[in-house]
């Protein structure tokens, strides 16, 4: 049944994470990575970050059932590891309690010291459309599986039809990555409510989709904080990884055909209505010059392609611009990003929205931000870190915007 179904107590208790531990494991050789890949099919392990190149850390949550055996294996094979989070549920509970206390304050204006629910996100967009009708237009691109409105906000200084290049920002694909929608709202806030950024509207129009997976996102608030996929029903397990569901090299490397996998690509390309909604708005929008997808975590800045170890014709341009962005972000707080294609830096992941944006929709400037994580908070920085992460990343996105404005004819 679609809609906001009530959740029974048994279901809720199934997603408590008392004594679940997150380990940071550093592979010393490819054999270790092969061991980690093998664990991805085991439901007692939940990989919070992508399996990395040798020498790079990987974060994985383990159930209490397997922790002793897991530690023994790592120690006996000389694999470096450390406990990143001792008890995941205690972190989740403290996060929930903080947001309950903040929601009680009933801010009239948006604040970047808390994460917002899907309805609150849409309410903020609607408020901006009301307050800034000359700049802001809000419209739905469709409904999610559970009939939540997927709204985009178009920000433009042009009162009528515009031929300016468009930057399209997509956020919230993976439900548990809360910092992703938060950053999209910060981008919107800076473009609409900060007059110091008015120059960024002179030569560019912006479209932002803050909530790509609203059903999964709400599920992380109400039931399972660790949920990643959509909420469409399956036979054995529910949901599809939206970022494996796009129809450019669908179901190739890095995608799973197992329903219970977090990287399950679906029964077919674009099986998920959320992926179809994004595909259709990209096709219907003229002059998109840049597409930015926001994820967490890992401090990576990727450009296509993700499906295999291949790069687009303009890879040198993409690398050059990515390095400019990386340097600007580093200069602010010392945050270090790694740049490159997904397969160059990590591993193949076919069926992603960034590959579709370039290979399917023909957009030339395409990036994926894997934003900083929260250390002991996992996917998302604690509330005190939301604003610093958003502010430093925004400076990098402004670099992309300036490049698009200066090179509009070449990249359209």
Automatic annotation (TrEMBL):
Q: Which domain of life is it from?
A: Eukaryota
Q: Which cofactor does it need?
A: Zn(2+)
Residues forming the Peptidase M14 domain are: 114-404
Quote the InterPro entries the UniProt record gives. CARBOXYPEPT_ZN_1 (IPR057246), M14A-like_propep (IPR036990), M14A_act_pep (IPR003146), Peptidase_M14 (IPR000834)
Question: Per the record, GO CC terms?
Answer: extracellular space
For this protein, the record's PROSITE patterns field holds: CARBOXYPEPT_ZN_1, PEPTIDASE_M14
MF-aspect GO terms: metallocarboxypeptidase activity; zinc ion binding
Active site (catalytic residues): 370 (proton donor/acceptor)
Q: Which Pfam families match?
A: Peptidase_M14, Propep_M14
Which keywords accompany this UniProt record?
Answer: Carboxypeptidase, Disulfide bond, Hydrolase, Metal-binding, Metalloprotease, Protease, Signal, Zinc
Coiled-coil regions in this chain? none
Which SMART domains does this one have? Zn_pept
GO biological processes: proteolysis
Q: What does the sequence similarity comment in the record state about its family? A: Belongs to the peptidase M14 family.
Which protein is depicted?
A: Zinc carboxypeptidase A 1
